[in-house]
Amino acid sequence: MINNSNLSHILNFNVNCENPGERLPVPCVDKNLPEVLFITSYPPRECGIATYSNDLISTLKSKFDHSFKINICALESESELHNYIHEVKYILNTDHPDEFQSLANTINDDPNYKILLIQHEFGFFAKAEEEFYQFLKTITKPIVIVFHTVLPGPDETLKIKVQQLAGIAKYVIVMTRNSGRILIHEYEVPKAKIVKIAHGTHLVPHLDKEILKVKYHLSGRKVLSTFGLLNSGKSIETTLEALPEIVKNHPEVLFLIIGKTHPSVIKHEGEDYREKLQKMVETLELQHYVQFINNFLPTQELLEYLQLTDIYLFTSKDPNQAVSGTFSYAISCGCPIISTPIPHAVEVLKKDGGIIFDFGNSKQLAEATVNLLNDVNLRQNISSNGLHRMASTAWENTAIGHAALFEKIGKGEISLRYNIPPLNLDHIKKMTTDFGIIQFSTINHPDLNSGYTLDDNARALIALCQHYELTKAEEDLKYIKIYFNFIKYCQQDDGVFVNYIDKEKNITDQNNSDNLADANGRAIWALGYMTHLATVLPKALVADAELTLQRALNGVHEIHSTRAMAFAIKGLYFNNKKQKIKQNILLIKTLADRLVQMYRHEADENWLWFESYLTYANSILPEALLCAWLATDEPVYKETAKASFDFLLSKIFRNNKIKVISNKTWLHKSDELIPLAIGGEQPIDVAYTILALNKFYKTFGEAGYRRKLNTSFNWFLGSNHLNQIIYNPCTGGCYDGLEENYVNLNQGAESTISYLMARLTVAQFLIKESRKKLQREHYLKSVKRAQIAKTVSAL
Question: What are the Cα distances from residue 780, in Å, to 6, 26, 774?
Fold first, then answer.
């Protein structure tokens, strides 16, 4: 039996990435996937590298579990024995020398192992350095070593040890540029072997500080915090010595010391350091201003503590500390940072990303903290700068960096397939009031002052109609009605729409100066799409939409803006699918003929386009002409649609990646040989390309369109020139743009809705592909049964 319940899992399927040949973008479970073995400390062991590896592996699995398989070999010693969960396949006790050779034999004998990745810290192998080195020499598979510590100024012994490890490794991963420079210049490691992949950070929803403070009973306090496994190297006494001066200026301050004592410290020193700090608190009479949280907190709870923190204090006294996960996590949670000048901090906090103070200098720390507490705008600026600077270090991007390296090493045996994230409407709902969807967002916080636009609400109406058509989620009707009512609110007595409405629901002066044709076209598209779902949506709602659309169509023949005509054609096409209306056909022909005439005026053998330049929303033009052909059977529309679309695709696809026309500079006919500008890529242009590719593939059945659809969607997931995610799976929002060197982290309505339209189009595409496959399988089984029955009958 074939029904939607058989296909519901499609909503979360993966899409193929790098040129998958003729394979369909349908679920694929390959029991013989190439395997990567991680050798690392791992939970329940409590150490920074164990936490790091757990986060990295979890993210790699969530993004690429159809690309390769990950197995884990947990490092332990007689003083660090643990009970591991089922995903740990091997345990290497570094106090047992014979286990090294046994593990090497296992790895070498298994043909599925393609890469060995080692999270390295010299302390892990301090009692078995020679055995570890011989183990590496024995391995016949490519080895990647991640150096978590890179000490400057090495003596000859340390230099030789690092050179030996690097000499065996295929690649060496470091987490900062400074570590890479030290390896190159001081250890003489070849630059070609070194790969920089930043320490990952968690995406967080950036919850309201005050709400979180209520949750953790910290209301009314200005929270300073630090976290991590406690040891004397953290120099927390520096903050305690600074605290009296801070409290004198800000008696509302509370300093949170989050984290239990490091297990290795416990074994050798007990709780001496914590007790020393507690005694300092008593001596300085700071009991009301300091709180110890003596636990190894679950990740989500820790991230909430960081989100409620007003200032994060990093006081490490180790000038050679290469990288700090605690420091990274704090910045990613929006904490303004005051830090000692470890190399990682100096690299990240420069140019207004935070404040640096000298090692152990409590006076400087007190002064910096008081100044920052006095200046809320400075705290906000530092927080924003830090967030933008750390965006590239999200665990998703760190996973992409590792996966790309695995693919490079795999030499064709590892091919990346990005998983499609689950559908998530959280941010769209957060952006929506009872009146409509708000235009802009600061990070993921809606900016009500930006007001509302018809453009965004029209697109939101289409997206929610798509979602309702696919899922039949009753809650969608609430949002469909909100966006539809907004469109009606924007419609004037003559049927024409205004675009801009402020937060007080007033029509703004911007409507007098801006060209409103595109917005009117989008409204017609949205209303047409809504009316074609007459068998799905409530009848009264569809009837109201039909009346609104007919009023809007009174002046549609006067539209001459290129993209406005295309949007209107799409609306008419969808409206005509519900019921063939002669007037709709005439309007479609009127607008389509204008597009064809524009094409004939501008096109030549090298420039098959409607205008003398490629600008924004380009895909909508050939898609509209294809819709016109589907509605009218006029061959010229089909011919022009295909020629112009193939021309556009030739300009925006290179090396199995999409790069839409930059909003920095359009591509002019006279400049067609000049490379496209880097950056300035908008999610809406990628989404429109996906919609068009879906329509062209359904019409022409060419595998190239299908592959490009997959490639286009992967742009959102990290297959772009920065190899960074554009869609944020934590919030359900989509970032506002891909620039030359960074991603714009604001998650406005246009970008988020565009992603959702693309995501739903891919889901519909996959469902149809899978339904065809199921039907074919059902047919073949029927044929086989008939053949068996015929054979039995003959016997």
Answer: 18, 19, 10
Predicted TM-score (pTM) of this structure: 0.90
Rounded mean pLDDT of 138-160?
A: 95
SS3 label, residue 25:
coil
Closest CA relative to residue 694, chosen from 32, 1, 4, 15: 15
Per the omega criterion (within 30 degrees of 0), is the bond before 422 cis? no
Which residue do the tokens 């404040």 mark?
A: 355
For residues 204 and 523, give the distance between their C-alpha atoms in angstroms, rounded to a whole number.
34
DSSP string, 175-227: SSHHHHHHHHHTS---GGGEEE-PPPB-------HHHHHHHTT-TT-EEEEEE
Judge whether 49 and 41 are in contact, CB under 8 Å.
yes
Tell me: the pLDDT tens digits for 67-95? Answer: 999 999 999 988 888 898 778 999 999 99
The secondary element (H helix, E strand) that includes residue 330 is helix 325-332
Per-residue pLDDT averaged across 306-329, rounded? Answer: 88
Distances (CA, A) of 316 to 3, 17, 125, 230, 360: 60, 42, 24, 11, 8
Task: Give the whole-angstrom CA distance, residue 115 versus residue 141.
Answer: 6
208: CB partners within 8 A, 6+ apart: none
Residue 258 phi, psi dihedral angles, 5° rounding: -100, 125
The torsion angles phi and psi of 438, rounded to 5 degrees, stand at -70, 145
**Looking at the DSSP assignment, which residues form a beta bridge with residue 668?**
613
CA–CA distance, 290 with 281 (Å, rounded to integer): 7
Structure tokens at 608: 């098959």
Closest CA to 75 of 113, 36, 119: 119
Name 311's bridge partners.
224
CA dist., res. 287 & res. 296, Å (int): 22
Q: What is the spatial distance between Cα 573 and Cα 595, in angstroms, rounded to a whole number?
A: 15
> And the tokens for 734?
């989509």
Using CB atoms within 10 A of its CB, is residue 262 exposed (0-12), middle (13-18) or buried (19+)? buried
pLDDT of residue 794: 56
Q: Is residue 661 within 8 Å of 685, Cβ to Cβ?
A: yes
Residue 291, beta-bridge partner list: 256
Each residue's pLDDT tens digit, 663-721: 888 888 887 556 667 889 999 999 999 999 999 999 999 999 999 999 999 999 999 99
Band of the pLDDT at 1, cuts 50, 70, 90? very low
Kindly report, residue by residue over 9-59, the tens digit of the pLDDT: 445 544 333 332 223 334 444 568 999 999 999 999 888 899 999 999 999
Helix (H) or strand (E) holding 698: helix 683-700
* Cα separation, 431 vs 231, whole angstroms: 44
Beta-carbon contacts of 792 under 8 Å, excluding residues fewer than 6 positions away, are: none
Among 658, 576, 657, 644, smallest CA distance to 609 is for: 644
Show the tokens assigned to 569: 């054609």
Q: Tell me the DSSP string of 731-752.
A: TTEE-SEE-SS-EE----HHHH
d(C-alpha 211, C-alpha 208), whole Å: 5
Location of structure tokens 């500079």: 665
The length of the chain is 795
What would the mean pLDDT of 571-597 be, rounded to a whole number?
94
**Residue 77: strand pairing partners:** 80
Give the count of beta carbons closer than 10 Å to the beta carbon of residue 509.
10
Q: CB-based contacts of 83: which residues, under 8 Å, 6+ apart? A: 44
Question: Exposed, middle or buried by CB within 10 Å (0-12, 13-18, 19+), for 11?
Answer: middle
